[in-house]
UniProtKB/TrEMBL annotation:
Protein's recorded name: MBOAT family O-acyltransferase
Key words of the record: Acyltransferase, Cell membrane, Membrane, Transferase, Transmembrane, Transmembrane helix
Main location: membrane
Protein's cellular compartments: Cell membrane
InterPro entries given in the database record: Ac/AlaTfrase_AlgI/DltB (IPR024194), AlgI (IPR028362), MB_O-acyltransferase (IPR051085), MBOAT_fam (IPR004299)
PANTHER family referenced in this protein's UniProt entry, alphabetically: ACYLTRANSFERASE, PROTEIN-CYSTEINE N-PALMITOYLTRANSFERASE RASP
Lineage: Bacteria, Pseudomonadati, Bacteroidota, Flavobacteriia, Flavobacteriales
Annotated membrane topology: Multi-pass membrane protein
Membrane spanning residue stretches: 5-22, 42-64, 76-93, 113-135, 307-323, 329-345, 365-385, 405-426, 447-468
Family to which this protein belongs: Belongs to the membrane-bound acyltransferase family.
The species this protein was found in: Chryseobacterium kwangjuense
Superkingdom, natural source: Bacteria
């Protein structure tokens, strides 16, 4: 049930109505409605995995209590048991088949058993929620949740179930235990954010998808300039698809009275790779920074800049591996980690750059262009199905045909990307891309009418899948 489908529109309309009408003054009833809605949403995809979701929630709730009240060796046993169960379940569904087949290939086992393991929807996201919950209890940042209904809602919260963001317990759990209030102003702003997310997904991302698929599937017959053009288009496709989903997730959560993690902060205008990752998939990068990178920095602190470089590279290898069991994902992460080395050497890792005016200077444009070029280069690894295809794409790009005129150039698609960039730039200092309440009512209405027209006229509704659902 995609956010952009009629089924979800009907589903959310019913949930919204019952939530605010029947449960308006009854927090427990609201939470019951929310949990049932989350399970219906998840079961609509595949009801068989509901047992896994409920079971994971129950085990996490029990172990969280034990971690909170235990001391010494017992605390470590409960903590390690929880981490092993959570990460082990994720590993089995996401990576086990890959390692079994790789082992068989390595030792030339001809009659190998190929495992077809279905990846449960959202398992990477809700597993990371559970793991952070355990670690926050262990680090005394969070007390074990005693409200079963609130905790089960935390794990299964449907607006951010399928593609994030990854909310930590300290953010979402308190909101599940206090009265939520709906205001017209907040509701209107949430709808604006949903509208812009739908525009990015249905109009921009879905218009680019057929082009990038054609280029990447036939790279060996195309010019280097066309493959390079495909990598550039893929950046905008991935951004519009993922940030569009995130905008809608945040918007739907706000309509239910929740504030969840902001996942994008206009990364297309980042002036170096560190700033790019501070603005891209924020919930994942902040999660890994807190639970992986920071402990590694402490562990490697005696090695100075070399230790910092090692910590960053290991962190980004994990970011790559999080996306799935492919060597290209690992290399994608490794490459981004290597991109950080010049910033570390020059002590510019944490230096934040602000634009000097309403329009970027030549230097600022150069920084943006170089950053996005680096990202596009790495995205070849992200888009390729395997290492052979990635090397083939790079081979085409670094050939003399790079200097030819690329194919698949469509003025409509370039225009749509231009509109996306314009709206993002206009609101780059705001909370989201359509936070335009500072404009007069006439201009605001013109924006709404324009985006609705673009969705109705240029929207591609056939491709409803989100790229990050597979992760």
């Amino acid at each position: 049930m995609q956010f952009t489908s009629i089924a979800f529109f009907l589903f959310f309309t019913v949930v919204f109505g019952l939530y605010w009408l029947a449960g308006r003054k009854n927090l427990k009833l609201q939470n019951i409605l929310l949990l049932v809605s989350s399970y219906v949403f998840y079961g609509f995809w595949d009801w068989r995995f509901l047992a896994l979701l409920v079971g994971s929630s129950a085990v996490a709730y029990y172990l969280g209590q034990k971690i909170g009240v235990s001391q010494g060796r017992a605390k470590k046993i409960y903590l390690n048991s929880g981490l092993i169960l959570a990460i082990g379940t994720l590993f089995y569904f996401k990576y086990f088949g890959f390692f079994i087949d790789s082992f068989a290939d390595l030792f030339s086992i001809k009659n190998k058993l190929t495992l077809s393991i279905i990846l449960p929807l959202g398992i990477s996201f809700y597993t990371f929620r559970i793991v952070s919950y355990f670690l926050d209890i262990k680090n005394n940042k969070l007390k074990p949740e005693t409200d079963v209904l609130a905790f089960f809602n935390y794990v299964a919260f449907f607006p951010s179930m399928t593609s994030g963001p990854i909310d930590k317990g300290g953010l979402l759990l308190p909101q599940l235990k206090k009265e939520r209030i709906f205001t017209e102003e907040a509701g209107a702003d949430a709808v604006r954010q949903i509208l812009y997310g739908a525009f990015k997904k249905l109009v921009v991302a879905n218009s680019i998808t057929p082009i990038t698929q054609s280029i990447f599937q036939n790279y060996d017959t195309l010019s280097g300039s066309t493959v390079a053009f495909g990598a550039i288009l893929f950046l905008f496709e991935l951004y519009a698809d993922f940030s569009g989903y995130s905008d809608m997730a945040v918007g739907f959560a706000r309509l239910l009275g929740f504030k969840i993690t902001k996942n994008f902060a206009f990364p297309l205008f980042a002036q170096n790779i560190a700033e790019y990752w501070r603005k891209w998939h924020i919930s994942l990068t902040s999660w890994l920074t807190e639970y992986v990178f920071t402990p590694l920095v402490i562990q490697f602190r005696d090695y100075g800049k070399r230790g910092l470089i090692a910590a960053i590279i290991l962190n980004f290898i994990l970011i790559g591996a999080w996306h799935g069991p492919r060597l290209t994902f690992v290399l994608f992460g490794l490459l981004h980690g290597l991109y950080y080395i010049p910033l570390i050497v020059k002590d510019k890792l944490n230096k934040k750059k602000k634009f000097s005016g309403n329009f970027p200077t030549i230097k600022e444009l150069g920084n943006i262009f170089l950053t996005l070029l680096m990202v596009c280069f790495a995205l070849v690894l992200f888009a390729a199905p395997d290492l052979k295809a990635a090397l083939g794409m790079y081979g085409r790009i670094f050939s003399l045909s790079l200097f030819s005129v690329p194919q698949f150039i469509k003025i409509k698609v370039l225009g749509l990307i231009g509109i996306l960039i314009f709206i993002d730039w206009l609101n780059k200092d705001q909370e989201h891309g359509l936070e335009i309440k500072r404009f007069n009512p006439l201009i605001r209405r013109a924006f709404y009418v324009f985006l609705i027209f673009m969705i109705m006229y240029y929207g591609v509704f056939a491709n409803g899948n989100y790229i990050y659902e597979q992760f």
